Q: What sequence folds into this?
């Protein structure tokens, strides 16, 4: 399977704390993307990091990429209850297909 | 920004009937469309990839005769679940990508279709 793996599978934190999710993938990539999905809804694109980038920021989000380890992490700082959702990393190894990681379910407790 | 409209958002059908799901790119040309299914509390599994005007490429284990994909135009792709069974009940999501040079739309997702087969 081309699917990446994420850990933890589930994460529960208090509002205001930081949340870190990790993603590992199997093949070389052009870029890696992170998505958010609220329960039973479509996906929202959060951030894209290219293979020649090591770190990227967007608001309260910080993404790192280590191509030598085939891994990425998503950090959400100062979490809010509204951040409760599932988060997926996704890779496009061939330029023709797009695969998602297993996802991390984040619960932020008010 | 790029928008993909997916309809219906939810559908209930009887076993043995067929259901068509549509995805339209509203403000860009989707040269490639991806179809995913997602079971509760699981990740999205790629079912097939279709390029406009070509036959879809199905992932291993996905029955092409059961999940018919049509991508006849640059703005519309459809997924038809034929002879639906309860085990086909799932959340189906499309994603569009434009390969046109000069503009990167990334992957734009539809809002998903919840299919329940009774």
A:
């Amino acid at each position: 399977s081309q699917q990446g793996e994420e850990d933890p599978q589930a994460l529960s934190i208090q509002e205001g704390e930081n949340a870190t999710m990790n993603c590992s993938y199997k093949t070389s990539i052009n870029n890696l993307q992170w998505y958010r999905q609220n329960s039973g809804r479509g996906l929202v694109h959060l951030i894209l990091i290219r293979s020649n980038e090591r770190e990227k920021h967007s608001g309260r989000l910080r993404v790192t990429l280590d191509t030598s380890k085939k891994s990425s992490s998503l950090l959400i700082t100062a979490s809010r209850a509204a951040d409760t959702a599932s988060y997926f990393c996704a890779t496009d190894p061939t330029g023709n297909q797009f695969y998602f990681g297993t996802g991390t379910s984040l619960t932020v407790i008010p | 920004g790029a928008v993909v409209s997916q309809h219906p958002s939810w559908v209930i059908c009887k076993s043995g009937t067929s259901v068509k799901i549509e995805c339209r790119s509203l403000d860009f040309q989707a040269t490639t469309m991806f179809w995913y299914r997602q079971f509760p509390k699981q990740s999205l599994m790629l079912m097939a990839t279709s390029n406009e005007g070509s036959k879809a490429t199905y992932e291993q284990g996905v029955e092409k005769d059961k999940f018919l994909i049509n991508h006849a135009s640059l703005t519309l792709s459809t997924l038809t679940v034929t002879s639906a069974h309860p085990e086909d009940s799932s959340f189906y999501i499309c994603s569009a990508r434009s390969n046109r040079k000069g503009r990167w739309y990334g992957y734009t997702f539809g809002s998903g279709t919840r299919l329940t087969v009774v």
User: Anything to note?
Assistant: The CA atoms of residues 31 and 101 of chain B lie 12 Å apart. Chain B has a mean pLDDT of 89.
